[in-house]
Write a structure and sequence with these properties.
This protein is mostly helical and 192 residues long. The chain has helices at residues 5-33, 39-63, 65-71, 75-94, 101-105, 113-137, 142-170, 173-190. It contains eight helices and no strands. Helix 1 (5-33) packs across helix 8 (173-190), helix 4 runs antiparallel to helix 6 (113-137) and helix 4 (75-94) runs antiparallel to helix 8 (173-190).
Length: 192
């Protein structure tokens, strides 16, 4: 039985959308991967990024215009500010003296607490608008949200893996590059 072309087109659109939304998660995963996180930290990050992408897409579906109308003018400022804050902390820590044990012990873990929430929110903020947009085009959003969430989780894991490999190959200064990547993403968000 031949495949229905409209179903294939719809699936390709959803996967393409999921990849586009997962790019921020990949970049943040790459930056945090340069800190050589352990397995538990990696799990927390990719799990939460995927979960937030799913929830924000569904939230866009349910809340839609009511929230989007009020924050549409400054949503990019919120996401940019959150990313810039985390990036500047990472940059400061990466430039600390390598022999400074107190600085190493006091390093903030971006995969815990408010840092994790801020990163998860910042990387999935666009999904709120996408959820709203999809609510006008489809009768069901659950499948699309699941695909978006899984893609974000997978792309975060890939970024973490690549970041760890770069850190092992090139040392601690790769973390500085990771922080600069986050700052570049934050600056790019201001252009939107």
């Amino acid at each position: 039985m031949p495949l229905d072309s409209s179903l294939l087109d719809s699936s390709l659109v959803v996967v393409g959308l999921a990849v586009a939304l997962g790019c921020d998660a990949f970049a943040v995963g790459l930056a945090i991967g340069t800190r050589d996180p352990d397995r538990r930290q990696c799990f927390r990050l990719w799990f939460h990024f995927g979960l937030f992408q799913f929830m924000m897409t569904m939230g866009g579906w349910y809340v839609g215009r009511a929230v989007l109308e009020y924050i549409a003018d400054y949503d990019h400022w919120i996401a940019s500010g959150l990313l810039a804050f985390i990036a500047l902390r990472m940059l400061k820590e990466s430039l600390a003296a390598p022999d400074d044990e107190d600085a190493t012990a006091a390093r903030c873990d971006p995969t815990r607490g408010w840092s994790l929430v801020a990163l998860s929110f910042a990387t999935s903020f666009d999904a709120l608008g996408v959820g709203f947009g999809l609510s006008m085009a489809t009768a069901s959003l659950f499948w699309e949200s699941v695909v978006i969430g899984f893609m974000a989780a997978g792309m975060t894991w890939t970024g973490l893996f690549l970041g760890r490999q770069l850190s092992k190959a090139f040392g601690k200064r790769v973390e500085t590059v990771g922080a600069l990547i986050l700052l570049a993403i934050a600056a790019k968000l201001l252009e939107i």
